Amino acid sequence: MIRLDDDQIPWHDGMTVADVLASVPDGRQYAVITVNGRYVSRPAFEHYLIPDNAEIRLIPMIAGG
Amino acid sequence: MKALNLNEIKTLEYKRPEIDRGYANQTLYVNVSETDIAIKPVSEDMKQTFVGGKGFDLWLLWQAVSAETGWQDPENTICIASGPMGGTPSYPGSGKSIVTAISPLTGSVIDSNVGGYFGPYLKFSGFDAMEIQGNADKEIVIYIDGVEEKITMFEAADLPQDSYGISSQLTSHFGGDKLRGISVVSTGPGAKHTLMGCLNFTWYDPKRKHVRYKQAGRGGLGTVFAHKNVKAIVARWENVTMDGNKPADKDAMKTVAKSYSKEIVTLDPKQNEMAKIGTTHLVPIMNDFDLLPTHNFKFGQHKMAGLIGKEAYKDIFDPGFDGCWMGCTVACSHGIKNFIPLTGPYKGQHVFVDGPEYETIAGCGSNLGIFDPYTIAELNFYCDAYGMDTISVGTSIGFVMECFENGVINETDTGGLDLKFGNRDAALETVHQMGRGEGFGAVVGQGVRNMKAQFVAKYGGDEAFLNDIGMESKGLEFSEYMTKESLAQQGGYGMALKGPQHDEAWLIFLDMVHNYMPTFEQKAEALHWFPMFRTWFGLCGLCKLPWNDIVPEDNKDSEEPAKVMKHVDWYAQYFSAVTGRKAEPDDLIAISEKVYNFQRIFNLKMGFGTREHDAIPYRAMGPVTEEEYESRQERYDGQLKDEHGEDIEGKSTAEKVATLRKLREEKYETLKDAVYARRGWTPEGIPTLSTVKRLGIDFPDVVELLAQNGVTA
């Protein structure tokens, strides 16, 4: 299992960030997430592998700076 | 109380007014040439039109200077103000001050916002704003004692030269056993020796028993301060409470403040953890999206960027809950305790480094090819102590490094400095020379615009190339974001009133990453709404960070998530509760529009403020060199073919660079047309007469100025 914000979702071998976001209704709008506290950005979503028991946070970064 | 050599030369005793609905209803005027101290009333019209903060500053400065006033002239006036909500201890980010003056870098009006306790202490002492005019022939300290109701001018001797020492000694001297009741504004020797001096605004950190500071960095305000021979301004106030602003509706204010604080405490740990790592989280994110300035904005990414971001500084920062104003739950003002510089006058001593923040990391780090967090910390420390803006310093050194690597200048010209990208020693030595006003550092301290002219005249540099790579607009150095792939952000920088600083509009993610604004009209709408709303913070004494750096969990489901309307609504409630002026979110935009357009017209008064001055260097729009193009060839080739239908088969890189350039420059001009139209400006970028009438800023001298520039309708 992995934790996605406050929810638990099943983990599978080879799971990428893109896989996780595809399972979220509004997943396409996220450009940045954290996996175990480390930032992962959209250019890496397709190939960044999620480890089992990971904690993922969806970062709503849109107009900061 | 530590004895200092301060000789009292003038004192004005006054009766401190009661604060009413966020206002003291008077301002303080100090003339350091004439040793004059006076108090001016604030009218209802002034509050209605200009609100406070930057609005008050601009109105006071407008009356103080003429079109002929240069930054060195005695009539140039440093104006400092907080705002009606400034000084509220529980609403996050309510401790900001705004400083304005005529800038040594741009020749026009500059504004810079800053944390620290000074602005609120000034207001609680009885003044919504203060003006410092004149040029003194001896070093002056101005002391505003709100507790004893006295304003005193001292002739100062034997104070330390640098801001680190000045602020510490004056806090100790005036604070007695209540050091937290003192806030000092000061600068250092670099401000005198360069055109990019900053002002340090302090607060006392009781946990670390140390004076901390934040910077009003942009545009050389510290240089004006130093030229006036003002060593420091000190404010004393000791009683900060929720009722200090005497809000019109205290219960409503407490309710909205509590909601906001609670949300930040809940959500910041789930989002960017700014209370732990400040703005350092931006480094890896900007790097991932090719937006982190690297090697004088040539590239947006570097494989070593991971060494200077959040992961590095979370272990280097001294842990603690660090706000630059009391009760702010964003608490992003982190620093490094017991840092030991390897160079300069503090070499080998334990010092506290305030920062670095993202801008300093990018400007004095990646943009110089430096990926060592400790060197960046040392550059940060000395820029602050010397009183120099880390953004202008970083962008200026980046420029000379590229000139050096391209042979425009050589070691003979730099006095032996090997200014290749990545040379940490050379970067540090350059900063020390800037601080002392010696050697090649004195040249760098004149800023990018002046260096471009000098390198052409003195070293035969290619003017067109230097104009392309010199990252300044209006004379101000760019802050630290890459804009090549975001037309909206190019506009956000190029059409910013004071020059390329991101505090007006930061649209990169909305535009480039999310593609929320594909048309020119949508970009223009964003370049209307965002600058107006961001301006509003500066009118009220507020920090922008709580608005959209911590976002409500349900924000994504709102109609306009980019605007974070739940927070905008809270701000409207906060404004209404403090001032008693009932405001809805749209009203905040209308309020800002008055001041925003007035500042544009102020630029016009000073000989700027027209279309030609909204130009940006091509490096901000696209690849200047073949090296840049080829480093992202797939992207650029794809754009030429797929977006523009260009046949690039058999074309050389140079030809493709030229084709892309023509297309991008045309787009930028089209964007200007769209933005000017949306803002109610002429195609030349001047507010129309009907716009200024609609906004109620059609003062006789404004109308006359517009007419002088051919605007009569």
Q: At the first level of CATH, what is the class of the largest domain in chain B?
A: Alpha Beta
Any idea of the CATH topology of the largest domain in chain B? Answer: Aldehyde Ferredoxin Oxidoreductase,  A, domain 1
Enumerate the spans of chain A where pLDDT stays under 50 for 5 or more consecutive residues. none
Q: What does the oligomeric state look like here?
A: heterodimer
Describe the structure.
The complex is a heterodimer of chains A (65) and B (713). Chain A is mainly beta and 65 residues long. Chain A has one domain: Ubiquitin-like (UB roll) (Roll), CATH 3.10.20. In chain A, 9% of the residues lie in helices and 29% in strands. The mean pLDDT of chain A is 92. Chain B folds into 3 domains: 231 residues, Aldehyde ferredoxin oxidoreductase, N-terminal domain (Aldehyde Ferredoxin Oxidoreductase,  A, domain 1, 4-Layer Sandwich); 206 residues, Aldehyde Ferredoxin Oxidoreductase Protein, subunit A, domain 2; 189 residues, Aldehyde Ferredoxin Oxidoreductase Protein, subunit A, domain 3 (Orthogonal Bundle). Chain B has 28 helices and 17 strands. In chain B, the strands form 4 sheets. In chain B, strands 1-9-8-13-10-11-12 form a 7-stranded mixed β-sheet. A 6-stranded mixed β-sheet of chain B has the order 3-2-7-4-5-6, sandwiched between helices. In chain B, helix 18 packs across helix 20, helix 18 packs across helix 26 and helix 20 packs across helix 26. The mean pLDDT of chain B is 97. At the A-B interface, strand 4 of A face helix 9 and helix 19 of B.
Could you write a compact summary of the structure shown?
Chain A is built from 1 helix and 5 strands, in the order ββαβββ.
List the helices and strands and how they pair.
The complex is a heterodimer of chains A (65) and B (713).
Chain A: E1 2-4, E2 7-9, H1 17-22, E3 32-35, E4 38-41, E5 55-59
Parallel strand pairs in A: 1-5
Antiparallel strand pairs in A: 1-2, 3-4, 3-5
Chain B: E1 6-13, E2 26-31, E3 36-41, H1 44-50, H2 54-64, E4 78-81, E5 97-102, E6 109-114, H3 118-124, E7 129-133, E8 140-145, E9 150-156, H4 163-175, E10 182-186, H5 189-193, E11 199-205, E12 210-216, H6 221-227, E13 230-236, H7 250-267, H8 274-277, H9 282-288, H10 310-316, E14 335-339, E15 351-354, H11 358-364, H12 373-386, H13 390-405, H14 424-436, H15 439-444, H16 447-459, H17 463-469, E16 472-473, E17 476-477, H18 487-494, H19 508-513, H20 520-540, H21 545-548, H22 565-579, H23 585-605, H24 626-631, H25 633-643, H26 653-679, H27 689-695, H28 700-708
Parallel strand pairs in B: 2-7, 8-13
Antiparallel strand pairs in B: 1-9, 2-3, 4-5, 4-7, 5-6, 8-9, 10-11, 10-13, 11-12, 14-15, 16-17
Helix pairs in contact in B: 1-2, 2-23, 7-22, 11-13, 12-14, 18-20, 18-26, 20-23, 20-26
